[in-house]
Amino acid sequence: MTMKKPTIFPFLFFLFLLPEVQGQSASRETPAASSPDSVITYKFDAQGDSALNAKMAYRYDNHLHTIEAEKFVREQSLNLWIPNRKEIREYDNYDRCTLWAIYEWDNNAMAYKGWMKETTWFDNYGNQAEYHYYTWDYNLYDWGNRYWDLFDYDDENKLMRRDHLEWNTVSEQWDTASYDIYEYDGGGILQRLTTWEPEEGTGIIYPCDRGDYAYDGFGNVAEITHQIYNPYTELWYWTERHQYEYDALNRKTHWMYSIYDEHGEKWFEKEKEDWGWDDNDSLTLYAYYRIGEDTATWYPDMKLEATYNSSGKMIHYRGFSGNDQAQWVPNYERRYPYQNDTLLLADSLFQWMEDEQVWKLVDCNNYQYDSLFRMYTDSYYKLVVHTGEYLLSFRDYYFYSATAGVEEQGEGQEEKRGCVKVWPNPTAGQFNVQCSIFNVEFETSELVDIYGKVLIAHNIRAMGQLNNEILELDISHLPPGIYFIRIHLENQTIVKKIVKL
């Protein structure tokens, strides 16, 4: 997607909090019912004339992961697409991301140069064993080392130590920047986390920061108290404290941050946060406060409120800021209308006009879909302040291949894929899956959404190995859109697309 609406910090911060919500999306997703192969953007001028502006091209693996996304910009004078930026991802057999790299186009070299790269390795037990971060070395015109993290676990897969190394460009070797030591009680609960760092000038490694953990009766972290070590007195000194509260469902509702005054031997509260939840575990409130100079008055800083429809989709979001009178002031508002509570039709941004005491539309994205409920266009309108008009600024067009960008091909797979039948397709809810491959050991089948989330799983061996057997599935409870049935056999995975009307 290219050149969209201005970024609104409170909205992004609110979305950053959403991964804490079990079962909720980590962001407001544009609900394209399938993964596009390309998205072409047109830019419009004040007269309504359009010109090609940018293009995104995507590739996916057979588990629906995006493995390549490349952006092109239009060079109007040459009537050509010029490469601009490329993102690469790789996954292992357990769907874990092992590589993420971003490249930028170098017009002088007429080739891509790297910007950043991350690689992750896992041990045989699924624990993260190594993390490597690279940036581009312009002298070598290749990736250059930056950071390297090593993780060590005990026999029970508890993390015992994490080493953080930094690349020394002078000595061309790895230097220890810090390492963390994790300590647990007899029940395997983390009790202490101590960070060690080398002292500047001497290189001698001392303990630097220590966090001591306390828990409530339900196993939630109730308090983390930090201390800092003085190598000259060889004593620990309190520095800061984090305190947490939870509701009856063990959802975080309150956080308090305090600092310790060594002279007064007293804790002073400095910051606090509040969270609110609905009955579906969706985050409805986030509020952040700072203490005033009188160390008694709490001043509101930022508040975010959200509401959801019956399908758990966010329909309304409002951001507030605090003023000097310790009052909340409306700031921004976003509104999301849906078709059948699931298909997003628009994303509108409003700004609160204090003088008129009204909400004023700033910009809006309008979405259209094809007959298969796939995103067809995304039109972005913005307010022209000096005229008061709302003009079309950009429009994205989405394009799909017959397989919706999914790489179904593999060695010998096309022949096997033709032996899997799905009917009726499209379907109003119920459909059948039949496989006519004999003498092949089947394992499982999965119904997944466009983001790769498993919605239904079956053990095919328990279904008579599906040798000409019919597997009956019902997705009446799922919203309209496109889904995929994945059948795993031996070392092959067959992917079939299902259209829910």
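(ticket continues) Second input and output from the same batch:
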Amino acid sequence: MANIYQKLQQIQAQTGKISKTELNKFGNYKYFTEQQALNILKPLLAEHKLTLTFSDEENRSYLDAEKKEKDWTVQYLKKAILTNSEDPKEQLTFSF
């Protein structure tokens, strides 16, 4: 049985390049959406018996807002949690 790091390495080797197909007209840059990434990852996660869940921090509203002159800065705090389905104690957490 592979551990979570070995499984993650196998998935990274299988994904290849993700093309940035969406365009932000305001900032004039290309990006890919979370849904595009999930469409690629879901079959690979199932193949390697990993689950990916998303959550917010506990005991917070997850919305920090700060006013700077006339503009507001808003920051959302999220987590992605990768769990080895064969050994649920093995988890990796990514904050973004």
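Agent notes: Helices lie at 4-15, 34-47. Residues 4-9+19-95 form one domain. Closing as not reproducible unless the customer responds.
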